[in-house]
């Protein structure tokens, strides 16, 4: 009993003292929020253009600069856009500018991602197959991270065993990760990787249990489950569904395959997928539009990202606000996905509501946290947001939504557990005696302050 009281008092004192010592510059919760930045977003037109100075590092625990590439002559990391990334030849010094954010935000880790879709798989497959080449890569990676002041490396090989890869990639990727981590340890560098979310990719590409030993975090790319390639409308990132193409399945499968929850990070798309309905469908407008209905094989573009079938949240929210087009908004409860339809245009996407539901699931599974692809397509300028009522409502609605949802979910879950516990203990006497101790302690503090 007295031990419990002393413990309560100890926690109470900690709260009082800790606030005076350090000011946290990051999210006010215990989970990771990993923010990928696609650096080519700087080339988007007008209000779509995103520079490093648009980042708000208080909303992320980790920033991931995407992407660097592989130099197959030297088996080393290379800048993919030297003018944006480096300072040489009057370059804009992206590496330096993003890592400098750590000076102001002491909580922040900044890592460099190598790979991505456009880098393909073949060159990584060849590199990983040779012990000598892996060794050379590991040594040069350490030098590269040190030189540019990064906190670690994020591997975005898409994907081992696929797209020109070979079955041996699974083992070779594991060896590459193991050898990188061995070299990173003495420099305290983080080693993370982005994993594909499909069951077929997971089975083919990853020795999950082995990789989880050496990776600090696994970033699950829980999106691109459906798109115009299906030739029917579908959720980009369904939380649940009747088949295996959904977020819950991916996360549960990874846990089952041996990924520890405290290393597993659930990815969230800050973008949607677009579709074009065939004339026949869009004309019969009396029927409610649905997920799963026929669509053309190519979706439409947004004005900033200009990629068929893809739209950033910042573009989507502007569209939906436009009163001169007739967007209607819907919610699909099976997948927990919002979608919007106007004439022959159809968008599935994520908003604060769908994100909050996903975060709730991730927190119930006790995951390490959330990741976003990518921070540059949130409404980072606040163009869609109502005139600020308070400081919280100025920009980044989805990033703020994620952090809020983490705090709320953890609080909810904690309260549920506490309630269950309370039924077991005889709390009345504890409360009484503890109140006395705290009252005395507060009095003593008050007197001697
Ligand atoms: C804790 O510290 C913050 C930042 O310095 C300050 O704004 C806040 O008022 C403090 N809270 C308490 C309870 O002292
Ligand atoms: C592999 O690297 C070479 C040389 O940098 C490059 O030309 C080629 O496009 C890369 N392969 C793929 C699939 O990207
Ligand atoms: C709103 O929609 C109309 C009709 O589709 C379009 O012409 C206009 O450019 C849009 N305005 C904005 C601000 O996107």
From TrEMBL:
It comes from Brassicogethes aeneus. This is GH18 domain-containing protein. One of its GO terms (molecular function) is chitinase activity. Residues 31-409 form the GH18 domain. Pfam families: Glyco_hydro_18. Keywords: Disulfide bond, Glycosidase, Hydrolase, Membrane, Signal, Transmembrane, Transmembrane helix. One of its GO terms (cellular component) is extracellular region. Residues 1-18 form the signal peptide. The chain crosses the membrane at residues 428-448.
């Amino acid at each position: 009993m007295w031990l419990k009281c002393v413990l309560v008092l100890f926690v109470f004192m900690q709260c009082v003292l800790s606030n005076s010592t350090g000011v946290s510059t990051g999210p006010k919760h215990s989970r990771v929020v990993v923010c990928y930045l696609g650096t080519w977003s700087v080339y988007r037109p007008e209000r779509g253009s995103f520079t490093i100075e648009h980042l708000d590092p208080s909303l992320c625990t980790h920033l991931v600069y995407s992407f660097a590439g592989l130099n197959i002559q030297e088996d080393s990391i290379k800048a993919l856009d030297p003018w944006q990334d480096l300072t040489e030849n009057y370059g804009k010094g992206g590496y330096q500018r993003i890592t400098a954010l750590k000076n102001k935000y002491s909580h922040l880790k900044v890592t460099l991602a190598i790979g991505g879709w456009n880098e393909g798989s073949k060159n990584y497959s060849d590199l990983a197959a040779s012990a000598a080449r892996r060794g050379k890569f590991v040594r040069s990676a350490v030098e590269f991270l040190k030189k540019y002041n990064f906190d670690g490396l994020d591997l975005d090989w898409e994907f081992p065993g696929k797209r020109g890869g070979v079955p041996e990639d699974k083992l070779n990727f594991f060896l590459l990760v193991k050898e990188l981590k061995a070299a990173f340890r003495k420099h305290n560098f983080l080693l993370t990787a982005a994993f594909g979310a499909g069951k077929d990719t997971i089975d083919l590409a990853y020795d999950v249990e082995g990789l989880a030993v050496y990776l600090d975090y696994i970033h699950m790319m829980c999106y691109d489950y459906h798109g115009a390639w299906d030739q029917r409308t579908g959720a980009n990132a369904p939380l649940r569904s009747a088949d295996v193409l959904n977020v819950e399945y991916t996360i549960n499968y990874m846990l089952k395959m041996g990924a520890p929850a405290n290393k597993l990070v659930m990815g969230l798309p800050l973008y949607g997928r677009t579709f074009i309905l065939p004339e026949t469908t869009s004309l019969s407008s009396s029927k409610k539009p649905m997920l799963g209905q026929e669509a053309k094989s190519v979706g439409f573009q947004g004005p900033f990202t200009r990629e068929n079938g893809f739209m950033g949240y910042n573009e989507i929210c502007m569209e939906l606000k436009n009163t001169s087009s007739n967007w209607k908004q819907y919610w699909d409860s099976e997948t927990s996905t919002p979608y919007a339809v106007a004439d022959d245009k159809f968008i599935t996407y994520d908003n604060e509501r769908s994100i909050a539901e996903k975060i709730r699931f991730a927190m119930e599974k006790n995951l390490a946290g959330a990741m976003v692809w990518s921070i540059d397509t949130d409404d980072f300028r606040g163009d869609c947001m109502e005139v600020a009522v308070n400081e919280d409502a100025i920009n980044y609605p989805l990033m703020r939504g994620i952090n809020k949802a983490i705090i709320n979910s953890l609080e909810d879950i904690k309260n549920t557990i506490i309630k269950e516990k309370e039924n077991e203990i005889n709390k009345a006497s504890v409360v009484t005696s503890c109140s006395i101790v705290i009252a005395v302690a507060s009095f003593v503090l008050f007197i001697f302050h």
